[in-house]
Amino acid sequence: MRPTKLPDPPLPDPDFPQLMAQLRARLHRYCARMTGSMLDGEDVVQETLIKANDSYDAQAVQNVEAWLFRIAHNAAMDFLRRRSREQAMFADEDVDAIADTQADPADRRHVTTAALRTFMRLAPAQRSAVILSDVLGYALEETAGVMGTTVPGVKAALHRGRARLRELAGQPDDAAPPPGLSPQDQALLAAYAERFNARDFDGLREMLGQEFRLDLVARRKPMQGRGGEYFTNYAAKTYGLRMTPINVEGRPGLWVDTEADEGAGAPGYMVVLAFAEGKVTGIRDFRYARWVCEGIAC
Description:
Blueprint: H1 16-35, H2 38-55, H3 64-84, H4 105-113, H5 116-119, H6 124-135, H7 140-147, H8 151-169, H9 183-197, H10 201-206, E1 208-216, H11 228-237, E2 242-248, E3 251-257, H12 259-262, E4 269-276, E5 279-285
Parallel strand pairs: 1-5
Antiparallel strand pairs: 2-3, 3-4, 4-5
Helix pairs in contact: 1-2, 1-3, 1-6, 2-3, 3-7, 4-8, 6-7, 6-8, 7-8
């Protein structure tokens, strides 16, 4: 007699920090497009993860991804209210007049190729609905859950948001370019890149100000001290990386070319610096968060 096969035991609850790490890239895709900024989007992601870590209850949260995106949505809306003092999220919509909520290929092409600042030309509700549905692939019900609204409300926002993106696709990009860097910032940025490319890490340490802050984005283990371990790791583990000065949304930054170190086609990343009184007061390194530049011209 063949023994009866017992059902597989239930899987243990997944490790919550690991789940947050796995979802971080998707959260950034949403938050960057909601805020119109790679860097502001990362700020909102960090705020989301802090709030989630403080309030997570494994017994109460059934769908971790939906729960995290709900927190991210609220954090992004709070950010937008702080920045622009927008009060109304939804415009009046004739929901009954909207029948088709499926994006055609042209609509998807407009969405996937739209620049971050283009999304900022949509109303917040339209922006959120289009990003969740057409960028991240959420169903209408899931999108409504994240946004805290109804399926008809999502349909209306999608309809208007897609129509607006079609209009914008045929218009010249008249958004103002990011502000230029001051001559002093350009000189400091060039000096930083020159010393890094020469592997002069002692020279880089000399550039740090007294009030220095390091943010190695998405690294699980934070680094302590005034950049000692940070520069030591770069000195020990990288040989072919090269930095080129760039303007990152009006802030001094560096593009890190990784191909000589990691092979042809390896994705690069950016490092954003902050200066004060001729010294480096902040380093925001995206080496462990290369998705930040995904689909964006960095």
